Amino acid sequence: MKAFACQMCGECCYGEGGIFLVPEEILQIAVFLGLDRERFLERFCFHRHGRVYIATGKDDFCIFHEKGRGCSIHPVKPGPCRKWPFFNALVRDRDNWAMAKDACPGIVRECSFEEFVREAEKWSCSEESST
After folding, report:
1. Which residue among 9, 54, 59, 85 is least enclosed by CB atoms within 10 Å?
2. What is the C-alpha to C-alpha distance for residues 101 and 130, in angstroms, rounded to an integer?
3. pLDDT score recorded for residue 126
């Protein structure tokens, strides 16, 4: 059973979070948007603790989340966004997983914690082989 199928609902896009970018992602997103690196950073990012983060809009959603449409940079979304919901905090803790399952409509309701962990392991292996 598949444990997760993104519904593009934006629940995971809400709030100023920890969506930091590595240098390759900065360039990839900038090119996708047709901007140079500096213009992209100026318009869509902020710096904190030596890292570059994606900004949020006035509605407290990620600046790239479009209500009713989803992620406007979906083909080049950054690592933390690609990884959702297979974060260590959810894969290692049944209670955290249960809370995420209640909040995220993409986590399949019939999926057990054990199935979720198995899919996370498969996802992790496929991500490593694609880098």
Report:
1. 59
2. 27
3. 58
